[in-house]
Amino acid sequence: MDAKSLKKRIAELEAEVETLKKASNQGRSKIEKMSAEVVDSNPYSRLMALKRMGIVDNYETIRDYSVAVVGVGGVGSVTAEMLTRCGIGKLLLFDYDKVELANMNRLFFQPHQAGLSKVKAAEATLCDINPDVEFEVHNYNITTMDNFQHFMGRLKCGGKMQGQPVDLILSCVDNFEARMAINTACNELEQVWFESGVSENAVSGHIQLIKPGETACFSCAPPLVVATHTDERTLKREGVCAASLPTTMGVVAGLLVQNVLKYLLKFGDVAFYLGYNALLDFFPTMQMKPNVDCSDSACRKCQKIYQKRLAEEIPTEPEKGSKVEEPVSTENEWGIEIVAETLGDDGDKEQNLDLGKGIKVAYTLPSKDDKENDNPETVTTNTDSLEDLMATMKQL
Amino acid sequence: MVDDLTKKTLSNIPLLKTKAGPRDQNEWVNRLKEEYKALIAYVENNKENDNDWFRLESNKDGTRWFGKCWYIKDLRKYEFKVEFDIPITFPATAPEIALPELDGKTAKMYRGGKICLTDHFKPLWARNVPKFGIAHAMALGLGPWLAVEIPDLIDKGLVKHKDEKES
């Protein structure tokens, strides 16, 4: 083909791209103010109806809030979509992964998005669903040094108003390291956050509200799991790392966003810990106090601040939620129990955690006394320089 | 949960004492020295026992590690690149060791070639913070993983010896 026909072909293709773009941009234009008018063309009419029904006083204030979703996978993507459809003010999305065909057993992402970064693909879809939401996306792993600094900075200044902190952080990640990184950031920033998760066998999940200093942080105790009476030690793991179901993930995302809405718009009671046992359709709840010996010093600092604030407050009426202790139910028709874990080599004492029925710790840790009595020989490095050690290692 | 051989290997790796991660500027240097000491002792011990199986080095901050590991089957040596970052939550959480060349070849891996560890690893690590370091993660994590996965990958033809590749 000569230059002339090539140019012609380019023009044709450009025109085709334009038409396709137009076809895919069937989305609506921005709406300045949320209206309660009940017409087919108003995307907010059913949400604003919550006010008329007396459920929420102030639905339109949802536009003032900024929420960070960390992990845009099976739970995080659905969470982000729900918040987008609810008209949240701003969403910050963090994930370093790409969309893969192996993700198609979950909701939200579509096969044609395979290969795109999850945050970019999510932003495109969500923006189309609701252009009133402001999006900020970051495609990186939050647990490494440089990224973590940036991550903390965005939590601190990425609010709806420039320079203000984010209102709520939602952990929708699938690993312990990332949860601990979020926990570290939120303790240092005294930032309220929700933890969420689905078990690797796909039949249980949980959400947990963490208010640094007031409720147990993620480091205060070993990870909590919902007992499903599937023995972890006999769980068939041949050839797989994890299973997942769109159902369990959808349920957990729904429970998470429901509690986010209640927290932000101040209606109903917000769950501190809500578990989901899919095998028994059982939903245990509980609240856990922070651990005074928590290994995270920022958590211990938050606890002191909270206790001081409590002491200064003059209680006029008993605080809601902590008033009367409800009688402990002795019914147990499903045979649900807290399973004692003796994973340890030397059978540590079960930690004295006040967990709800049907909730257990993933593993036990040695008690503080055991740790103090235990003085093993450790390496001594007084006389070595790091450079020498690095050189020695290289020469091996 | 830990077999006798692993116990013996573990007893030969010095324990660490400084609870510091890469964000703890001064203390991190001490932790890093301990990491190197323990790794050197472990590699020397492996050599003595005719079980030398990896080399590692780090960038100067000690936040990124790389090197190689190898596995011998039928007198043939199969070598793989190893890499991992030290997470800001270290040593409360173990490093996530990755073998990027094997990404996509086995289901016992997470994205990016991070190896999928057994249920026993995390509790064991958590119970031994801050005494366990990188050397322990290699001995308890990567070592057993290679022993299970590599023979299987060779049998399936997914991993080939370098002589076979060239031919």
UniProtKB/TrEMBL annotation, chain A:
Gene3D superfamilies: NAD(P)-binding Rossmann-like Domain (3.40.50.720). Residues 44-295 form the THIF-type NAD/FAD binding fold domain. Keywords: ATP-binding, Coiled coil, Metal-binding, Nucleotide-binding, Ubl conjugation pathway, Zinc. It holds the Pfam family ThiF. It comes from the Eukaryota. Residues 3-30 form a coiled coil. InterPro entries: D-isomer_DH_CS1, ThiF/MoeB/HesA, ThiF_NAD_FAD-bd, Ubiquitin-activating_enz. Residues 365-396 are annotated as: Disordered. PANTHER family: UBIQUITIN-ACTIVATING ENZYME E1, UBIQUITIN-LIKE MODIFIER-ACTIVATING ENZYME 5. Belongs to the ubiquitin-activating E1 family. UBA5 subfamily. This is Ubiquitin-like modifier-activating enzyme 5.
From TrEMBL, chain B:
CDD domains: UBCc_UFC1 (cd11686). Gene3D superfamilies: Ubiquitin Conjugating Enzyme. Coiled coil: none annotated. InterPro entries: UBQ-conjugating_enzyme/RWD, Ufc1. Keywords: Ubl conjugation pathway. Signal peptide: none annotated. Pfam families: UFC1. Belongs to the ubiquitin-conjugating enzyme family. UFC1 subfamily. E2-like enzyme which forms an intermediate with UFM1 via a thioester linkage. This is Ubiquitin-fold modifier-conjugating enzyme 1. It comes from Clavelina lepadiformis. The lineage of its organism: Eukaryota, Metazoa, Chordata, Tunicata, Ascidiacea.
